[in-house]
């Protein structure tokens, strides 16, 4: 049987206990912190390099689109957001996307006609593609009093109330 003994002052004991407590706190934070974000849906850029990938993305959200005639143009995301672009980025953030990391970048804006939304005007799906990845976009009506929202799942209830509002506004 071995017996070890050591002498330590109160100051040394308190320092050791403090170090152990800090080590435990660091371990808890590094292990538990990522688990808190698991419930939040975060958007990971989807493939958008080909027409097939873009169509699959939109149909995966529940939209029926005219895949035969997309239009494309190049758009510059500004270095600094003005009020309008800040509001547009809020729409992106509500859909789990963010255009801030792409400030100053040129992106391709692909536009498709949406076929399954009842509306008095044309409805379009716009996809922003950077380096063959979909980084943002919107679903919008071309009507003057139309709607615009981020790339979220198709919600028939949203569009029926939007159409009812548009019909009531037109009738008045």
What composes the largest sheet?
6 strands, antiparallel
Kindly state the number of beta strands. 6
What is the count of DSSP helices, taking H or I runs of 4+ residues?
4
Q: Based on helices, strands and strand pairing, what is the structural class?
A: alpha+beta
What can you see in these coordinates?
The chain is an alpha+beta fold and 172 residues long. The chain folds into two domains: 7-40; 46-171, no CATH class. Helices cover 38% and strands 24% of the residues. The protein has four helices and six strands, in the order H-E-H-E-H-E-E-E-E-H. Strands 1, 2, 3, 4, 5 and 6 form a six-stranded antiparallel β-sheet that branches. The longest helix is centred in the first third of the chain and has 27 residues, at 10-36. It is elongated. The N and C termini lie far apart (97 Å). Mean pLDDT is 81; it is low at 35-42 and 163-172.
Key words describing this protein structure:
172 residues; alpha+beta; 2 domains; 6-stranded antiparallel beta sheet; 4 helices; 38% helix; elongated
């Amino acid at each position: 049987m071995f017996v070890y003994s050591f002498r330590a002052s109160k100051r040394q004991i308190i320092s050791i206990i403090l170090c152990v407590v800090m080590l435990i706190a660091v371990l808890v934070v590094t292990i538990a912190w990522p688990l808190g974000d698991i419930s939040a849906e975060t958007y990971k850029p989807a493939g958008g390099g080909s027409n097939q990938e873009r169509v699959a993305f939109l149909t995966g959200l529940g939209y029926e689109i005219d895949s035969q005639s997309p239009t494309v143009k190049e758009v510059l995301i500004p270095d600094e957001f003005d009020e309008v672009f800040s509001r547009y980025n809020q729409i992106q953030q509500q859909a789990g996307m963010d255009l801030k990391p792409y400030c100053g970048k040129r992106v391709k804006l692909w536009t498709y006609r949406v076929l399954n939304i009842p509306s008095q005007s044309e409805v379009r799906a716009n996809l922003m593609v950077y380096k063959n990845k979909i980084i943002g976009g919107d679903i919008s009506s071309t009507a003057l009093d139309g709607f615009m929202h981020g790339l979220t799942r198709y919600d028939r209830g949203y569009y029926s109330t939007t159409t009812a509002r548009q019909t009531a506004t037109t009738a008045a």
